């Protein structure tokens, strides 16, 4: 139903650890609750004194109650680990039910049964929430991270979309360059280059079409 709880202390030390944690939780939470309650119930002018007095009277009692509950829960949990020889959420559920029933045993069998059911359901909800949170966190850690290589800025021409190759931009630039050269040829010497190219081509054609003279023959007839 779950994985072993590796973040907790081993079983003999777990009892003391849970007692201390439960006492601190009860003392801090009880202090805040009883301070607000004491300030609200005190008369005007003595609200701060009434709040601090309520904290001194009730915070240790609440912390001790939490410590007793945490110690019994850890004791039952360690007992279930020893009996079942494995760590799983069922140990915590059974320990919660046993703790609730044991603490309400003085009030009768019916009250003890109700407290046991309440403790078991509460621990089942807590363990279920912990299992769901662990699954969500493990799924996020195992999810592969897809990293797309960005297109370099030099490979994209101005006025062209991202997917177009840069060759189209170069072809357009060369075409515009030739057109501008023919347009401004008379101004910047482009027309002179074209005339030289045309003249050299005509000379080549003339030389190729010219017939070579016959080779002289020195034989006497």
Structure explained in plain terms:
This protein has helices spanning about 10-40, 45-85, 90-105, 110-140, 165-185, 185-190, 190-210. The chain has about 220 residues and is mostly helical. Helix 1 packs antiparallel against helix 2 (about 45-85) and helix 2 crosses helix 3 (about 90-105). The longest helix is centred in the first third of the chain and has 38 residues, at about 45-85. It is elongated and about 150 Å long.
What's the helical proportion of residues? over 70%
| Count of β-strands | 0
Distance between the termini: 124 Å
Structural class: mainly alpha
Q: Describe the largest sheet.
A: none
Large-scale geometry = elongated
By DSSP (H or I, 4+ residues per run), the number of helices equals 7
Uncertain runs with pLDDT below 50, 5 residues or more? 163-170, 173-177, 179-185, 196-206
The average pLDDT is: 74
Element-by-element helix/strand order? HHHHHHH
Beta-strand share of residues: under 5%
Taking all Cα atoms into account, the compactness measure Rg is 47 Å
Q: What order do the helices and strands come in, and which of them pair?
A:
Elements lengths: L10 H31 L5 H38 L4 H15 L5 H34 L23 H18 L1 H4 L1 H20 L12
Helix pairs in contact: 1-2, 2-3, 3-4
Organism: Dovyalis caffra
Keywords: Membrane, Mitochondrion, Mitochondrion inner membrane, Protein transport, Translocation, Transmembrane, Transmembrane helix, Transport
Protein name: Mitochondrial import inner membrane translocase subunit TIM17-2-like
């Amino acid at each position: 139903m779950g994985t072993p709880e590796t973040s907790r202390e081993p079983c003999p030390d777990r009892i003391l650890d849970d007692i201390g944690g439960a006492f601190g939780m009860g003392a801090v939470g009880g202090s805040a609750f009883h301070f607000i309650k004491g300030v609200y119930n005190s008369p005007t002018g003595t609200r701060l004194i009434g709040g601090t007095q309520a904290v001194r009277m009730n915070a240790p009692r609440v912390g001790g109650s939490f410590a007793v509950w945490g110690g019994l829960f850890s004791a039952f949990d360690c007992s279930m680990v020893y009996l079942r020889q494995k760590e799983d959420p069922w140990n915590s559920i059974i320990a919660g039910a046993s703790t609730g029933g044991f603490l309400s045993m003085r009030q009768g069998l019916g009250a003890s049964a109700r407290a046991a059911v309440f403790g078991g359901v509460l621990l089942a909800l807590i363990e279920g929430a912990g299992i769901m949170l662990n699954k969500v966190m493990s799924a996020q850690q195992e999810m592969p991270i897809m990293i797309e290589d960005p297109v370099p800025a030099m490979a994209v021409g101005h006025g062209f979309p991202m997917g177009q190759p840069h060759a189209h931009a170069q072809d357009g630039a060369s075409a515009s360059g030739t057109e501008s050269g023919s347009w401004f040829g008379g101004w910047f010497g482009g027309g002179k280059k074209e005339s030289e190219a045309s003249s050299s081509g005509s000379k080549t054609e003339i030389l190729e079409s010219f017939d070579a003279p016959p080779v002289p023959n020195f034989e006497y007839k």
